[in-house]
Design brief:
Elements: E1 3-7, E2 10-13, E3 18-25, E4 34-39, E5 46-51, E6 58-60, E7 68-73, E8 78-83, E9 92-99, E10 113-116, E11 120-125
Parallel strand pairs: 2-11
Antiparallel strand pairs: 1-3, 3-8, 4-5, 4-9, 5-6, 7-8, 9-10, 9-11
Length: 126
């Protein structure tokens, strides 16, 4: 059974940076798209970023485009989310997700992801 574990969350001031990591165990995810989602208190979970199975294709939510970068190290079975110029509205629990099916396209909808991490809290103070 694939397990995903996020790390790297914490408290940071507005304008600061954090790098989240998502480590997979129990199976290789090198053939699958990976994504990051977030959920703020009282709000629904929302898409943040996704990266294709090759690592060459990425897609971002408009709210984070130009500030966040998703990447993956297939050899280490790890996906990263580099977050810069953080804003208070970025405060949320961030979840890593892995698709369980090989797809040629990127995956934006959370319903298409098979595996989820437990989440890591990111808090941005103003």
């Amino acid at each position: 059974q694939v397990q995903l574990v996020e790390s790297g969350g914490g408290l940071v001031q507005a304008g600061g940076s954090l790098r989240l990591s998502c480590a997979a165990s129990g199976g290789t995810l090198s053939d699958y798209a990976m994504g990051w989602f977030r959920q703020a208190p009282g709000k629904e979970r929302e898409f943040v970023a996704t990266i294709g199975w090759t690592g060459r294709s990425t897609y971002y939510a408009d709210s984070v485009k130009g500030r966040f970068t998703i990447s993956r190290d297939k050899a280490k079975n790890v996906v990263y989310l580099q977050m810069s110029l953080l804003k208070p509205e970025d405060t949320a629990v961030y979840y890593c997700a892995a698709d369980g099916v090989w797809r040629r396209r990127l995956v934006v909808s959370d319903s298409e992801y098979s595996y989820w991490g437990q989440g890591t809290q990111v808090t941005v103070s103003s």
